[in-house]
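Following the same procedure, sequence and fold were stored together, as reproduced here.

>
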Amino acid sequence: MAHYYTEGVFRIARADAETIAESVAFTIGAHFGFDTGTRSFPYVAIWSKDKKVLEANLASIRKVSAKIIDALEQTANKTVGVALLDCFQGSPAARLLEKWRTAKAKNSALAMKDLEALGPDYDTEDSNQALIDYREIEPGDYSDREEYPEAREEAWEAFIECLESLAGEEEEMINSSSLPGAR
């Protein structure tokens, strides 16, 4: 789709088209919580060999990304609408738990923003610390190639356990009707 919007109106150099299209794909993925950097950055580096190529195309990357993100969000709002709300019924922490338990991509930055959005009524310190621990795991810290992904998975599971605890506490508060807006 990015190639269509990039090349559709004007014929541009292939290096520019590839740089824009892959950068747009990365931007859209990041917007929706997918980390494609490990594949996108090397590909962009191949085509934009020079930093000037990337800099010259930043405005196009922003414009095409915004156009596609806007179209995707409008389409999602029209087609999903109430069905999405039905899918994630429940309390805010329970919805957050379901979102990150089933997420295809583990994005600690977006998860932290979600925790912030819960607001001051929630004690998210343990969940935030679990995400910090997840982010701090580096491949160089492990001599065995298989230990790194295992450590990341264990750290993510610790975050999920913190969310489970948070959702459980929230459920107890709802059941005792001490939470504003309790059913």
About this structure: The two ends are 44 Å apart (CA to CA). The first helix runs from residue 2 to 7. Residues 2-82 form one domain.
